[in-house]
Amino acid sequence: MFRTIFIALSESTMLRAVAERSRIGRRLSSRFVAGMTVQDALAATARTNAAGMTVSVDNLGENVTNVEEASHSAALYREMLDEIAKRKLQANVSLKLTHMGLDVEEAVSRRIVAGLVSHAGELDNFVRVDMEGSSHTQKTLDIVRELHGRHPGRVGAVIQSYLIRSEDDVRRLCAEGIRIRLCKGAYKEPAGIAFQAKEDVDASFVRLMKIMLRSGVYHGIATHDPAMIEATKAFARAENISPDSFEFQMLYGIRRDMQEGLVKDGWRMRVYIPFGTEWYPYLMRRLAERPANAIFILKNVFRR
After folding, report:
1. Three-state DSSP class for 88?
2. 130 among known catalytic residues
3. Which of 19, 111, 188, 260 is 20 to 30 A (C-alpha) from 165?
4. Which residue is catalytic, options 179, 181, 268, 286?
5. For residues 24 and 7, what is the distance between their CA atoms, to the nearest angstrom?
6. Residues of the chain falling short of pLDDT 50
7. What is the tens place of the pLDDT at every residue in 230-274?
8. pTM, whole model, 2 decimals?
9. Nearest alpha-carbon partner for 279 in 102, 22, 16
């Protein structure tokens, strides 16, 4: 029930407008969002690197309404890539295609993202293209494949284990040598295309994880679920898969103790660090994934 509520809240433009402009809204988001500016994100990245973890930085935003907004977003990502190189940070970037104008003018969006991937390649870096709702799945994967063909190893995809189609997608991406971030998924999807029960989503996650780790491609296993983490570790050990041949990935501000524990035990860890003013949909989807986070946030807001 709470998952459905938070997903519905994530789609409310009125609440989003109020929250993103309010002081208390920014306090609510501060646990999971590094700040509003590039400098905030870079500072959080440096701290995370110092703790032995790599980073993927995301300028929060989606569904821009014009080409000018998309171009502005791309310029911010270019700045971020330049600063990462200049400061010698261990980080790459993550972006959403709708933030780059996919729903406004597809040809322009493709050109913008191609430019960023090319720039990342010049800096020996990498761009992760995030997955959005199911209406964008096929087009997103098509664009990632096209970019990988032009810039091998410089762009990767995200696969959501709750989609029924995901096993076919994983096999195809692995065969093409495309890096994948595997997650469970944080959108509301109908039963015809997505598993609805947690046990089915979990079983799919484990099945896809095994395909990915056997592929020889460097992938990311993105989860905070202890059962999924233990299943991954057990499989890697049983198959003699080196801990440095893949990485775990977690979100900024969630289960820091677990992140540190994995690093201490010799596993690779990448932290997904979001920043920017358009944090509201992101926060609501994080609460949909784990409603208990709402109580945690409220405790922190009212704590001196």
Report:
1. coil
2. yes
3. 111
4. 181
5. 21
6. 2, 6, 9-10, 17-18, 301-304
7. 999 999 999 999 999 999 999 998 889 999 999 999 999 999 999
8. 0.86
9. 16
